[in-house]
Description:
The complex is a heterodimer.
Chain A: E1 5-7, E2 10-13, E3 19-24, E4 31-37, E5 44-50, E6 53-57, E7 64-68, E8 74-78, E9 87-94, E10 104-105, E11 109-113
Parallel strand pairs in A: 2-11
Antiparallel strand pairs in A: 1-3, 3-8, 4-5, 4-9, 5-6, 7-8, 9-10, 9-11
Chain B: E1 4-6, E2 11-14, E3 19-25, E4 32-38, E5 45-51, E6 56-59, E7 62-67, E8 72-77, E9 86-93, E10 101-103, E11 107-112
Parallel strand pairs in B: 2-11
Antiparallel strand pairs in B: 1-3, 3-8, 4-5, 4-9, 6-7, 7-8, 9-10, 9-11
Amino acid sequence: DAGVTQSPTHLIKTRGQQVTLRCSPKSGHDTVSWYQQALGQGPQFIFQYYEEEERQRGNFPDRFSGHQFPNYSSELNVNALLLGDSALYLCASSGGQDLNEKLFFGSGTQLSVL
Amino acid sequence: SQKIEQNSEALNIQEGKTATLTCNYTNYSPAYLQWYRQDPGRGPVFLLLIRENEKEKRKERLKVTFDTTLKQSLFHITASQPADSATYLCALDGPGNTGKLIFGQGTTLQVKP
């Protein structure tokens, strides 16, 4: 039973470019959340998707957008990349037979913006 | 807004001792509090959840306490092992219990043999 999978694992972009990160939730989960983790910091909530809709959003600009597909997988898009967007981007899923509050994280996508 | 404070300094202890990590929050009392473990280059892994009406929760060598008066949670690892070395993150639910988690910055634990 696969857990949460994210792709790619590493990505290097330059300022101003756009990036798309992908996430497949744990089997049976229907809710996907995205977090940004800067070096030495805890994860910061970006947004959460449920039933293909953005259900909650953290304090991130509109350059950060997302999508959830009918199979519950999700994408995170970031436009007009800034140096400060360099971070580990984590996808987490929840729901199904597991406690709703318990998050299962993927290993993340390490994004470097040069 | 909710602020969470964890010891930013690394905690170094000897194998076999009990490690105690602290999580303090400043604002509203959350409906629940969670602890996660994170290894370098990996995503956090869920360890324990404790609800506001629970004082203590145990799982094998792990114990969590939750004091809503002090606005504090303590996380204990008894009989610590070098394999317990990792960063431990405290997380609270956002206002309205909507499933959004607010994380502390984490405390790095180093267990020496």
